[in-house]
Amino acid sequence: MKLPRRKFLHLAAGAAALPVSCVARAQAYPSRPVRIVVPFTPAGGADIAARLLAQWLSERLGQQFVVENRPGGGGNIGTEAVVRASPDGYLLVLTPNAVNATLYDKLNFSFIRDIIPVAGISREPNVMEVHPSVPAKTVPEFLAYAKANPGKVNMAHPGNGTSPHMAGELLKMMADVNLVPVPYRGAAPALTDLLGGTVQVMFATMSSSIEHVRSGKLRPLAVTTAARSNSLPALPTVGEYVPGYEASTWYGIGAPRNTPNEIVEKLNKEINMALADPKMQARFAELGSTVLPATSGAFGKLVAEETEKWGKVVKFAGLKAE
Fold first, then answer.
1. Residues 6+ away with beta carbon under 8 Å from 238
2. Which architecture does CATH list for 125-240?
3. pLDDT per position as a tens digit, 4-25
4. Which of 13, 135, 239, 304 is 20 to 30 A removed from 195 (C-alpha atoms)?
């Protein structure tokens, strides 16, 4: 069947107009520097992951991707700044924020509602590590030591609701052990006090502490993931001694709600290309991490599942924001 010429041209024009507009907008992005807000202090695992990705994207896309640290409020201050930003792809946020939905009674935003999951970056175990003065070389020995010294074993963490904090709270809940949480303003000062022996144990991210482990300044007892880490293959998992225990730190990128789909898709594509780069994979492996390629939808599913899981731990332990 032949269409009248006028109708054919009208349909062709209509079919072409929207895709061309979307493609043009995506191709034009980014036309100026992009800021990635890390809502935590420098030198921690989140900061390291963001800077690795930012460097790759800067070289790939011809615009600077600048990491901006905005710590405070357990990550809420930096995250809210991105929630309130223009949804144009020029202000992004490094997740996670899976715990705060339950930890804080009143938030001015909903992470799942107000932040679009763009892409995953990496996943890594936390390392249960102690100062060498602690007379324990295994998880069972540590649990026995802690139970014999209730209220005397201090557990450093970089703020309420952070991955190191929650990994420790999960062990407290599952092993019925008394550890005294000691919050710090970031991973770096927490590790400094652990290295100095002011505190006894920390469930630090591997990327922020692996060099201290390798140098012997800290004694690792176990990794927190379900499987052993390729970076420290001789190190057992906590779950080998506390069945069912699993915790890990994951990072990804989010954007303000209503950010155009074509920009989200372009960022997702470019980030996944970065994670497919053997050099990038090797760099993350050196830090004890594995890359976390995912579609926007798959990453969003991970955020939702983690929010539910850790919400149960927060409620069980009766945790409150600082």
1. 128, 139, 171, 222, 223, 224, 245, 247
2. 3-Layer(aba) Sandwich (3.40)
3. 445 434 434 444 444 545 555 6
4. 239
